[in-house]
Design brief:
The complex is a heterodimer. By secondary structure, chain A is mostly helical. Chain A is built from eleven helices and no strands. The radius of gyration of chain A is 23 Å and the shape is elongated. Chain A starts with a helix and ends in a 7-residue tail after the last helix. By secondary structure, chain B is an all-alpha fold. Helices cover 78% and strands 0% of the residues of chain B. Chain B has helices spanning 2-29, 36-40, 46-55, 62-74, 88-123, 128-142, 145-159, 176-210, 213-220, 225-262, 268-277, 281-309, 311-315. Chain B starts with a helix and ends with a helix. Classes of the chains: A mainly alpha, B mainly alpha.
Chain lengths: 291, 316
């Protein structure tokens, strides 16, 4: 009886969080859209008769819904829908991978700074402050100009300019959790510093970390689109949602559909992740009320 | 107060040192370091490169080079553009006006529109207006600025023909009305994200204030509602907005770069991208450092201003 009662008590916070999340209809919609985008970009290309890099110069600038090309063709006669799916695959992958790297760096820096405090903490956090002084796009472009653009470099660069906020969040959490009884108890047990940091403190800060991770994906997708649009991210012939817009401005008068579809896709993906993050924030920690 | 300002100033100077060290590190990350431009040209032999390296003092140890570079930066010697040999600071200052004009206009639009949306959203919490504003703000924050710019150009320049598709003025015109005509679209595009941010922060700040005891006291005294809102609530809700303005500054600068690119606006952001295209590293690094210093000064000013208007800060 007691074990049953205990397990109900333990489940309750999770249940409450799920209920709060379900109430947040936009977050739920965001989650569904993300799922559709991921599945669509993962399997969609196999369902299409067109290859995303196949150039058919005789069929260039076919408008949407004309013949076989649902979203039309671009300036080289490539199928826009096929490019959109492959582009979304690249953009979403960069979003996820950059998020994972940024979270790893941010959590490590934040945990060390928050746990040790003192000079180590101060130096690390001042480094974070200094990095945040550079407007993200300026820093990103300056770094991108120095190296060979590509999938890996683009991802690493985005992560390099996105980990600082995570470090701030984690540092604040770890610093306050460090003084709590369970952390002091772990110290008294003789647990190592690393163990206390990553087995006791960081798991207790999981709510803000999950929220930060979700918002980070949104930010990374947006940054990829900026970087590729400006020509320093993913390079053609490979498609990304950003570099599909690269040439769109030139053909804005004659072929506006080239600009509409990729832009809508970026907006949809980023909005979905932002709403999901918002919903998770409300669900996981009702006290957090950062706008 | 003096102590608070001195404290904050010392922090800012320390940050400047770290910021400059990061800038210096990036400069040396370039393949071939600061000499990459010359190394790429076939006209220079390895012998020439070695000589230039010695002449520019690049064979000294990194800390010495850094101190030298930092000292020259403080004296206003930021190097010369590879493109035309002009001093970096004068290249930047000739493009700064256009950027500041764009940023100031966008900020005014954002403060007025976003502030209004935020206040109304807070007063009519969970109303249809509030819900639409919240969702709208989230979408506005998710739209890529450059794409919004393209859509704006398509609708207002291509389809309707109301606004010019780019540039700061019509060549040969340049009257006030002409400048204003060119300013509308890029300023609105840049203002989109800012308006959304201001609306969100204003809403939460206003919500916090109207639940305070002194607002209830004012109501209990029988004070007219408009007076409570304007004199007691709004004035206090506006205070944290000073911090928001400081925090938003990097985003505003980054947004300006993108808006300038889409609308071929001859500002600092456009110059930055052009310089990257030319591999003009002195100008690229100059603008990167300049923007970071602007952000640093912006947040310093915001903190000091906040302490001036809100005495509680100075004590804490």
């Amino acid at each position: 009886m007691t074990s049953a009662a205990l397990s109900t008590v333990q489940l309750a916070p999770g249940h409450a969080a799920w209920r709060r999340f379900r109430r947040h209809r936009l977050a739920l919609a965001g989650a569904v859209i993300i799922l559709v985008l991921v599945l669509g970009s993962a399997f969609g290309p196999y369902l299409l008769p067109f290859d995303d890099t196949y150039i058919d110069i005789m069929k260039r600038f076919a408008p949407p819904l004309s013949g076989a090309h649902i979203l039309g063709t671009d300036e080289l006669g490539r199928d826009v829908l096929a490019r959109l799916m492959m582009g979304a695959r690249v953009s979403l992958s960069i979003g996820f991978v950059a998020m994972v790297i940024a979270m790893a760096v941010g959590i490590a820096v934040g945990a060390f700074a928050g746990f040790f405090g003192g000079v180590v903490g101060a130096v690390l956090m001042r480094l974070v402050d200094a990095m945040l002084c550079f407007p993200t796009i300026f820093l990103l472009l300056a770094l991108a100009a120095l190296i060979e653009p590509g999938f890996v470099t683009t991802t690493v660069l985005i992560a390099a300019t996105a980990w600082m906020w995570v470090a701030r969040v984690v540092e604040a959490q770890v610093r306050s959790l460090r003084e709590r009884e369970f952390a002091v108890a772990a110290l008294a047990f003789g647990s190592s510093n690393l163990r206390i940091m990553f087995r006791e403190l960081v798991p207790n800060a999981v709510a803000p970390i999950v929220v930060a991770a979700t918002l980070n994906v949104a930010k990374a997708i947006l940054l990829e689109s900026y970087l590729s649009y400006l020509g320093y991210g993913i390079q053609p012939p490979a498609a990304s949602l950003g570099n599909m817009l690269n040439n769109a401005q030139i053909y804005l008068t004659s072929a506006p559909w080239l600009a509409i579809a990729p832009g809508l896709a970026i907006t949809l993906a980023v909005t979905s992740f932002n709403f999901l993050g918002d919903g998770l924030r409300d669900a996981l920690d009702p006290r957090m009320n950062i706008p | 107060m003096a102590r608070y300002v001195a404290n904050r100033l010392a922090q800012a100077i320390m940050l400047l040192v770290i910021v400059s060290a990061i800038g210096f590190a990036i400069l040396h990350l370039a393949p071939g370091g600061p000499l990459s431009q010359f190394a790429a040209s076939a006209q220079m032999t390895q012998e020439d490169l070695d000589r230039v390296t010695r002449q520019l003092g690049l064979d000294r140890s990194l800390p010495i080079q850094y101190l030298d570079w930092f000292g020259r930066m403080l004296r206003g010697d930021w190097g010369h553009s590879y493109r035309d040999g002009e001093a970096v600071l004068s290249v930047i200052s000739s493009h700064l006006g256009a950027t500041l004009e764009l940023m100031a206009t966008a900020t005014i639009i954002a403060v007025l529109l976003g502030g209004w949306i935020g206040v109304l959203g807070a007063l009519r919490r969970y109303s249809l207006f509030d819900s639409l504003a919240t969702v709208g703000a989230m979408i506005a924050l998710s739209i890529p600025t450059f794409w919004f710019g393209l859509v704006t150009i398509y609708i207002f320049s291509v389809k309707l023909g109301w606004l010019p598709a780019g540039n700061r003025e019509t060549v040969g015109d340049g009257s006030f009305l002409d400048l204003l005509h060119h300013l509308i679209a890029p300023a609105l595009v840049l203002a989109l994200v800012e308006t959304a941010m201001w609306g969100r922060f204003m809403r939460s700040s206003m919500l916090e204030v109207i639940n305070q005891d002194y607002i209830r006291t004012a109501r209990a005294k029988g004070m007219p509602e408009w007076r409570i809102l304007t004199v007691h609530a709004l004035r206090n809700a506006l205070l944290p907005m000073i911090t928001v303005a400081g925090l938003q500054f990097p985003t505003l600068l980054g947004g300006a770069l993108v808006a300038e690119t889409v609308f071929t606006w001859p500002g600092m952001g456009r110059l930055f991208l052009d310089s990257i295209g030319y591999r003009d590293y002195p100008v690229v690094m100059g603008i990167l450092m300049f923007s970071a210093i602007m952000v640093l000064i912006g947040s310093l000013l915001a903190d000091i201003l906040y302490a001036v208007v809100d005495p509680r800060i100075r004590v804490g």
